[in-house]
């Protein structure tokens, strides 16, 4: 059997980290590690992303070198899920090959799935497309036995200077068949949620894969085959008990949509089971605004079952923009959703996207104003992003077809830099400015009005956001300098397509 090193690359543009201080485990690698270990392989997870809290990327890469030299893996797998991590992932592969050119480098994740040729050209031997558990296991078993990788479904590779892409693999129908993720391979101390205190250990879990919706900027739906599959309640409860037994305090459910119209009753029974069986676990999830509004009784039950933070993709304050994004709801729905969550004591983080090709500057200002208004309604935190066509999404296909991309430097695809030709400098300024203004406004309004609202509020989260104020003030003061840097960057080779 082989030694396999699984690597999560650093991602300094993670919105959850910058807003709530959430550093969460790489669930995909834990799932792959579990199935490889069950096959008898020796597996190690190196989460470089968790280390960037204390070390620079340069220092982290030095640690990578030392780990590879000591562990001596035959195979290295890198999860390139976020597009902005593609360049550093390529650097990782090159470092590994410099240490030992015989090590087989395998890439997986969203970006690798949709950009396999380019990934192979940047230091990797194989690309595992879509779901990785079964595919990487078969690939390694095939290579170990001297078989031909052409027989393995769901991979891409180059042989004799010829690009080869095998037949697509069927998606896993019964997710219950997957082993419990190998969380024991992680250093638990590295994963926590600052907003709720340094001792708030947090792990990740999934209850479903895929999404029944079709937002134009999202690559999640095509990644999972534009299908939605769910684990059974029995499996979810078993895993939650395991998590609680291992003394994790929080769970971040990474499902693209934790509650959908397709699983309302099943979720209701799940929450009742959690309450009835006394599973003392607190959790974070991603949920749609229209689901919150349509099922307020279910939200109250979810709060009783441990829901503490909800991320809502509000995206825009303009109805026409939302329609073109294919969101399926209007701004008033988001406003009502925030109020409902506020009343039941759930902290709410909203995502806003500005700069879509079909959005005017007037509509952008409308979104910023809408976000400030939601602050009054009880919105706790906001993440303002620039519309970024990620590989695999309809937005990316349309941007390439219509020649809208200003750059193909993947480092800039972190949703914090403009990558379309339209209003680049203006959008960068508005994204940064709206972020700082929101938190300044939140702080001022909170001091003046929070006592009058008499709404339940998570005190520790509020304290964390208030303590973050100096950071926001510093960013606001330095904004002119950052704008000048952005101007220089736009003129540099970094923005060459």
Give me the secondary-structure topology.
Blueprint: E1 3-8, H1 15-20, H2 27-38, E2 42-47, H3 48-51, H4 57-71, E3 75-79, H5 86-99, E4 104-108, H6 110-114, H7 116-120, E5 126-128, H8 133-144, E6 155-159, E7 162-165, E8 202-205, E9 208-209, H9 220-223, E10 229-230, H10 233-245, E11 250-253, H11 264-276, E12 282-286, H12 289-294, H13 296-304, E13 307-315, H14 319-325, H15 331-343, E14 347-354, H16 361-377, E15 381-386, H17 394-401, H18 424-453, H19 459-467, H20 469-477, H21 479-491
Helix pairs in contact: 2-8, 4-5, 11-13, 16-18, 18-20, 18-21
Q: Main attributes?
A:
497 residues, alpha/beta, Rossmann fold, pyruvate-formate lyase- activating enzyme, 7-stranded mixed sheet, 6-stranded parallel sheet, 45% helix
Report on the structure:
The chain has helices at about 15-20, 25-40, 50, 55-70, 85-100, 110-115, 115-120, 135-145, 220-225, 235-245, 265-275, 290-295, 295-305, 320-325, 330-345, 360-375, 395-400, 425-455, 460-465, 470-475, 480-490, and strands at about 5-10, 40-45, 75-80, 105-110, 125-130, 155-160, 160-165, 200-205, 210, 230, 250-255, 280-285, 305-315, 345-355, 380-385. By secondary structure, the chain is α/β, with parallel strands linked by helices. It has 2 domains: about 5-165, Cobalamin-binding domain (Rossmann fold, 3-Layer(aba) Sandwich), CATH 3.40.50.280; about 190-490, tm_1862 like domain (pyruvate-formate lyase- activating enzyme, Alpha-Beta Horseshoe), CATH 3.80.30.20. The strands form 3 sheets. Strands 2-1-3-4-5-6-7 form a 7-stranded mixed beta sheet, with helices on both faces. Helix 11 (about 265-275) links the parallel strand 11 and strand 12 (about 280-285). Helix 11 runs parallel beside helix 13, helix 16 runs parallel beside helix 18 and helix 18 (about 425-455) packs antiparallel against helix 20 (about 470-475). The longest helix is centred in the C-terminal third of the chain and has 30 residues, at about 425-455. It is globular. It starts with a strand and ends in a 6-residue tail after the last helix. Mean pLDDT is about 90; it is low at about 450-455.
């Amino acid at each position: 059997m082989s030694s396999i090193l699984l690597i999560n690359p650093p991602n300094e543009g993670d919105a959850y980290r910058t807003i709530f201080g959430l550093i969460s485990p790489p669930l995909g690698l834990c799932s792959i590690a579990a199935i490889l270990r069950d096959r008898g392989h020796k597996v190690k997870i190196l989460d470089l992303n968790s280390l960037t809290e204390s070390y620079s990327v340069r220092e982290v890469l030095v640690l990578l070198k030392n780990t590879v030299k000591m562990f001596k893996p035959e195979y290295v797998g890198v999860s390139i899920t976020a597009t902005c991590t593609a360049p550093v992932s390529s650097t990782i592969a090159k470092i590994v090959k410099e240490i030992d050119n015989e090590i087989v480098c395998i890439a997986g994740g969203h970006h690798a799935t949709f950009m396999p040729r380019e990934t192979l050209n940047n230091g990797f031997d194989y690309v595992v497309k879509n779901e990785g558990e079964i595919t990487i296991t078969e690939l390694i078993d095939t290579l170990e036995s001297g078989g031909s990788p052409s027989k393995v479904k769901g991979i891409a590779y180059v042989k004799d200077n010829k690009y080869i892409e095998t037949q697509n693999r069927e998606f896993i129908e019964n997710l219950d068949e997957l082993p419990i993720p190998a969380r024991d391979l992680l250093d638990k101390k590295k994963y926590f949620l600052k907003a709720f205190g340094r001792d708030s250990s947090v792990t990740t879990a999934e209850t479903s894969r895929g999404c029944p919706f079709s937002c134009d900027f999202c690559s999640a739906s095509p990644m999972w085959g534009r299908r939605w599959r769910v684990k059974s309640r029995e499996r979810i409860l078993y895993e939650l008990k395991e998590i609680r037994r291992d003394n994790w305090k929080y769970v971040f459910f990474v499902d693209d949509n934790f509650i959908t119209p397709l699983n309302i009753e099943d979720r209701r029974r799940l929450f009742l089971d959690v309450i009835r069986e006394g599973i003392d676990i607190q959790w974070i999830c991603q949920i749609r605004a229209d689901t919150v509004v349509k099922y307020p009784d279910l939200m109250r039950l979810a709060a009783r079952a441990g829901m503490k933070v909800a991320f809502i993709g509000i995206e825009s304050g303009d109805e026409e923009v939302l329609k073109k994004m294919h969101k399926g709801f209007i701004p008033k729905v988001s406003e009502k959703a925030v109020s409902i969550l506020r009343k039941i004591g759930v902290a709410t983080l909203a995502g806003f996207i500005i700069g879509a090709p079909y959005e005017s500057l007037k509509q952008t200002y409308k979104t910023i104003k809408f976000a400030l208004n939601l602050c009054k309604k009880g919105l706790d935190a906001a993440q303002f992003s620039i519309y970024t066509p990620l590989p695999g999404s309809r937005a990316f296909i349309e941007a390439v077809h219509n020649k809208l991309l200003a750059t193909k430097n993947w480092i800039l695809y972190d949703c914090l830099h403009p990558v379309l030709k339209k209003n680049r400098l203006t959008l960068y300024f508005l994204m940064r400015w709206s972020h700082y203004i929101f938190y300044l406004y939140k702080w001022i309004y909170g001091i003046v009005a929070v006592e009058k609202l008499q709404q339940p509020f998570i005190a520790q989260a509020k304290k964390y956001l208030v303590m973050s104020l100096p950071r926001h003030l510093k960013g606001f003061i330095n904004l002119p300098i950052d704008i000048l840097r952005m101007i220089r960057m736009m003129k540099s080779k970094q923005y060459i397509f």
